[in-house]
Amino acid sequence: MTATEDRVALDQWYALGAMQDFRAGEEAVTRLLGEDVRIRCSTGGDIAVTAGTRKLPIRTDYGHLWTSLGSPARPVFDLPESREPDRRAVHCGPVRVRASGLRLIENFLDLAHFPYVHSDILGTEERPEVARYEVEQRRDVDELWATKCEFFQPKAAAAAAGGQISKYMYRVVTPFNVMLYKTAPTASDRWDVIALFVQPLEPALSIAHPFMLVIDDTSTDAELIGFQQMIFLQDKIVLENQRPLLLPLQPGRETPTRADLSSVLYRRWLKEKQWRFGVEEPTAIA
Amino acid sequence: MLRFHDYVLSDSCYKVRLLLGLLGLDHVRQPVDYYPGREHLQPRFRTLSPLGEMPVLEDDGLVLWGAEAVLCHLANAHDRSGRWLPREAEAFGPVMMWLAFAAGKLQALSKARETALFGAEGDLNAMRRQGRAALRVLEDHLTDRGLAGGTWIVGETATIADIAAFPAVALSHDCGIGLEDYPALDLWQRRVRSLPGFVSMAGIPDYF
Predict the structure, then answer these.
(1) How far apart are CA A235 and CA A117, in angstroms?
(2) What CATH class is the domain A7-67?
(3) Which of B78, B98, B132 is the C-terminal boundary of a domain?
(4) Cβ of A21 and B36 within 8 Å?
(5) A225, A227, A231: best mutation site toward chain B, by most B Cβ within 10 Å?
(6) Any idea which fold A86-272 has?
(7) B111 & B51 share domain
(8) CB atoms < 10 A from the CB of B166, how many?
(9) Which chain B residue's Cα is nearest to A232?
(10) Nearest residue in chain A measured CA to CA from B38
(11) Domain extents for chain A?
(12) ipTM
């Protein structure tokens, strides 16, 4: 696989991992958009990221290392919750998934699969209904929002004691970076933030970097991480078995329902951007 | 009380989780941040398990590390029926042999899975080849058993040999190996899943 020519994809920031994963004096090679990317961490702790002979720009927002193969027009998106001192920042560890990163984001936005893929945890087959929610493209900041989402969840989080109606909001800040805001089980007036930063290695191979900013002073890291990893691995097997592996944007290839409003908006947004990386090549017969 | 140090995504820990479920044994579960925290390599965990090996079971002062030892202990000390660890000569040796197989050659799939999921070091294709070779041996064995009218790896009922081998087979998809080429394994894994008290884990497909 060679480097992409998708200009829009190149001009974005991508997470390469949590800062703590890059140790002083070590070097790591990873992939980004079909290119080898080298991360060097000096003995003094300075980090340099290169692609071939090119030195790439870096950022260290939210405890992650970010880079771009192009020239991003904007800084890394803002995450105001990261400045709230009582939140715990939890890195859940990168996981590789053999699917388009766009599929990962779309799955993250989906409520309807909870009862079937995360049975008796994030949903139950007795209560599968997705209530009406609202979606919005905020053109001033170029973000997608889904709000007023509600779902009955038998075990909404690591610290959840019993079933609850969870409230959700979703915020898509770039095609490969998304956050969900969810009723905090131990502080009902605030939202837990669960972020998914996707590093697209190839069109159909991705690394997910799940990250949380939660209000929870009871669970251990092992419990919080274990819960998210279990949920994510339940998704992974579905993602890897979806066909096509790449996301189809052609009308008629996949049929959405009302519950898929956020996915419809996400796909429309990608088309508007003329996004191509991780997208299925259009065919003559739709 | 049994105290079980568990990592939710570990196929080795799942062996023990599965037998605890099948035997219906009460226990305290102690989650370990194996990844990304590498808590199993910290000094505190190594006082229990000097190599950082998981899972670990504590039972009334006894500390055991490694899935196969724990399976043997649970079956030996907590299974009144005696069928999970048969003592008669024609079954005991074969159960031990397949336990060693699960802890030995079949581990290639466990290592491949760790590389495929977490980017752990190693040649994924080489590990997949070794994993397929191990699956082939078990496939052939279960085919022979089927021809002779048997359904389990050893004897007339499921034993800890089946439990030790099940996770690697059921999770093979995680490292990119499907069961299409292993029809006897596919039938067998369905039988394991239908055992009373069976517990699944994330990554095991429930659509077969």
Answers:
(1) 7
(2) mainly beta
(3) B78
(4) yes
(5) A225
(6) Naphthalene 1,2-dioxygenase Alpha Subunit; Chain A, domain 1 (3.90.380)
(7) no
(8) 25
(9) B202
(10) A222
(11) 7-67, 86-272
(12) 0.88
- What percent of the residues of chain A are helix, what percent strand, and what percent coil, each to the nearest 5? 20, 35, 40
Q: Which of A21, A93, A98 is closest, CB to CB, to B176?
A: A98
CA distance B94 to A158: 41
Give the pLDDT score at B205.
Answer: 85
What confidence score (pLDDT) does residue A2 get? 64
Interface contact flag, A95 B118, Cβ < 8 Å? yes
Q: Would B200 be classed as within a structural domain?
A: no
Q: Which are the contacts of B29, defined by CB distance < 8 A and separation ≥ 6?
A: B4, B6
* Average model confidence (pLDDT) across chain A: 94
pLDDT of residue A3: 77
**Do the beta carbons of residue A19 and residue A66 sit within 8 Å?**
no
CB contact under 8 A, B173 and A240: yes
- Spans of chain B below 70 pLDDT: 207-208
Measured between beta carbons, the chain A residues lying within 8 angstroms of B7 are 226
Contacts of A241 in chain B (CB under 8 A): 205
Residue of B nearest to A222 (CA): B33
Domain tally for chain B?
2
The verdict on B99 and B145 lying in the same domain is yes
Of all residues in chain A, the percent with pLDDT exceeding 70 is 98
Higher pLDDT, A2 or A241: A241
Nearest residue to B77 via CA among B11, B20, B116, B148? B20
Query: In terms of residue numbers, what domain contains B103?
Result: 89-193
Alpha-carbon Rg for chain B in angstroms: 16
CATH number, position B144: 1.20.1050.10
CATH classification of the domain holding B53: 3.40.30.10
Q: Are residues B116 and B160 in the same domain?
A: yes
HSE (side-chain half, CA atoms, 13 Å) at A65: 24
Q: What's the pLDDT band for A285 if we cut at 50, 70, 90?
A: low
Asked if B25 and B106 sit in the same domain, the reply is no
